[in-house]
Design goal:
Two copies of one chain form a homodimer. Chain A has 321 residues and is α/β, with parallel strands linked by helices. The first copy, chain A, has ten helices and twelve strands. The interface between A and B is large, with 47 and 47 residues.
Chain lengths: 321, 321
């Protein structure tokens, strides 16, 4: 019988699990409530049940599963299997999550990885990066997560905190980031901060059709910004341009560092479509050096929300080989 | 008999060659004029003779040499062995330098690498990075060269142009860099641009003891800036602070990308000593995030001008294993 792998994506609201064959074909998928506010044991039980259900749905018992990949937000000591202080899990403080889940699943091998890294690896093995060896990945959501593939492998630094690409500083002494630094790319170009900059501009009195949104809903979302951009609003265009420019600078900076063949953007914000992608490319072409022609491709991810479970399963498979 | 390796550092003025044993102990060193303005054949002949002399000086014939490492400035197609358009070599245009040198040395294996990468690898195997696995290297000269060691290996990108760390943009729309980009770290913090910013400030009328230097010598060097800083000149302090801050931002950006355990600065500018190093560390501590305590060490290189030949020989040794 061929090998079976499970990929678990532990989110603040939902646990998603995919059951994959050895070609990383998705056989079955389940999801469950995380109950992130509860204790470690409950959260681990929720993961284990969802995992067993995913295997069962695909017609397998847990005994048939070769290994399990677990993707979770950080900070965590991934190599040691310990979740330290993930933002949305108030009770997961220095919890040996890898060992606890393995114990619950009869000693199954668990590969533990950062969720952005797992999604990056998913896009690399099965999505937008599947035909290259060197890739950089950005996920644009509340923050900006990152991942780097170098010669077919996820780049791992001296500790467990490489690939924090959203915290590359592009405007020294600029906007304050949640991390405490000033001028991080994330402070400008994440979905949340794109919306926030629009809100600040409207509140400061800039003329925009977004004012009506703020008045009626008390907030502006990133989707609102792109909707109003498409409808011709000038402020929405300015905000989008600033986001695209920050992302283009980020592309140039990672190009000059690890030199990927492809740069892949993922996350909720890519729903904006070509109106965003084309602006990123425009700024990239405007800002990049003239020493040589660059051939790096900038594109959007193709796997959507499944990237995390695919990547987690692929990492489990890679570790077993 | 133990293995012997040669490391060649091809510079615009001098060719330096070191002959090393299998523990990378330097047995003999030679240097020769490059004659960079001449044709490829002459330059290659100059390298070959210097290589033969280095081996002879250590008591060996070329037949005893296991492999040769050749470090040269770029841009070059290092993996293909072709020097494309290196700045100081007007006649080396698309020259298959690796094959030509190998032919001249009776088919000897030649490992061809970027000079900053070779110096980085030298510091990694025998200098400031010899006790870590993950390191980032900056060389501060006319420009800012870079190198990245990840898990004991020199990072190589999709082409031959990873590690162009001086061209990380830290001030979008800032100073124009020689590469055509605006706001590169190199445009602020290389030795040449540190001196240039001082000259520009004095010419713009800023009060400084450096004015006398400019009046008498018609130029200000980077060494002048640090000499006048030590003598208490305020403009020299301001220029140094700007350089140190740019380098600190660069450190933060590479930390969040490949997460080295150590960041090593090399090149002529480190002669400035602690007055520069301590300012870089101060700005790093001021600008770095608060999410977790960083343990990366920032220090100066220890091998001086030999880093290139040691690194080239070490790369030759690594390739032979």
């Amino acid at each position: 019988m061929s090998e079976i792998y499970l990929g678990i994506d532990l989110g603040g609201t939902f646990i998603k699990v995919g059951c994959f064959d050895s070609d990383l074909k998705l056989l079955a998928k389940t999801s469950a409530h995380t109950e992130a506010e509860k204790d470690a044991k409950t959260i681990i039980e929720n993961m284990a049940k969802a995992a067993e259900q995913a295997a069962a749905k695909a017609g397998f018992a847990m005994d048939d599963v070769s290994a399990v990949g677990l993707a979770s937000p950080g900070p965590a000591k991934y190599r040691e299997g310990i979740i330290e202080a993930a933002t949305n899990f108030p009770n997961l403080r220095n919890i040996p999550i890898r060992r606890m889940l393995s114990d619950r699943l009869s000693g199954k091998t668990i590969i533990f990885e950062n969720d952005a890294n797992a999604a990056c690896f998913g896009e690399f093995v099965a999505g937008a990066g599947k035909d290259v060896d060197d890739m950089v990945f950005f996920t644009l959501g509340t923050g900006i997560g990152g991942g780097i593939i170098n010669k077919g492998k996820l780049l791992v630094g001296a500790g467990d905190n490489a690939n924090e690409l959203g915290h590359i500083i592009i405007y020294p002494d600029g906007r304050l980031c949640n991390c405490g630094q000033k001028g991080c790319a994330e402070a400008y170009a994440s979905a949340t901060n794109t919306a926030k900059r629009a809100t600040e501009a409207v509140e400061a009195g800039e003329k925009s059709s977004l004012k009506k949104v703020l008045d009626e809903k008390a907030q502006i979302t990133c989707k609102d910004v792109y909707d109003h951009l498409k409808a011709g609003d000038k402020l929405a265009k300015k905000i989008t341009d600033e986001t695209a420019k920050a992302l283009a600078i980020l592309c140039i900076n990672v190009l000059h560092t690890t030199e990927p063949a492809r740069i892949v953007f993922a996350g909720g914000m890519i729903a904006a479509g070509d109106v965003l992608l084309n602006r990123i490319k425009d700024y990239f072409n405007e800002q990049i050096w003239h020493l040589k022609k660059e051939t790096v491709e900038i594109c959007f991810a193709t796997l959507g929300e499944d990237a995390g479970i695919i990547g987690a399963a692929a990492l489990a498979k890679q570790a077993e080989k």
